[in-house]
Amino acid sequence: MSKKFELWKELAARCLGEQDPAKLTELASEINLVLTQKTPHLDPPLHAGESHEEANATF
Fold first, then answer.
1. What pLDDT is attached to residue 51?
2. 3-state DSSP call for residue 21?
3. Burial (Cβ within 10 Å: 0-12, 13-18, ≥19) of residue 45
4. What pLDDT does 40 receive?
5. Closest CA to 15 of 29, 1, 34, 36
6. Which of 36, 38, 30 is CA-nearest to residue 10?
7. Do residues 43 and 49 make contact, with C-beta atoms less than 8 angstroms apart?
8. H-type helices in the chain, by residue range?
9. Segment 8-59, tens digit of pLDDT
């Protein structure tokens, strides 16, 4: 499973027993960050007709 999913499960489990509204709000904010973060790609996607070398060329 992904690290994101594991973190989400941990945060959700911590919410179950939490009674303090401020702590619940903080946990909810952390969960929201985990769910909205984009997973970085190892390589940028290639554009149609462009080779890998062309995509990474610096001008």
1. 56
2. helix
3. exposed
4. 66
5. 29
6. 30
7. no
8. 3-17, 21-36, 52-55
9. 899 999 999 899 999 999 999 999 998 888 766 666 666 665 555 555 555 5
For residues 55 and 44, the answer to whether their CB atoms sit within 8 Å is yes
Tell me, what's the pLDDT at 24?
Answer: 94
In degrees and rounded to multiples of 5, residue 26 shows phi and psi of: -65, -45
pTM: 0.58
pLDDT the model gives residue 19 = 92
| 13 vs 6: CA distance, rounded Å | 11
Q: End-to-end CA distance of the chain: give it in Å, rounded.
A: 40
User: How many CB atoms within 10 Å of residue 18?
Assistant: 14
- Cα 15 to Cα 17: distance, rounded to the nearest angstrom: 6
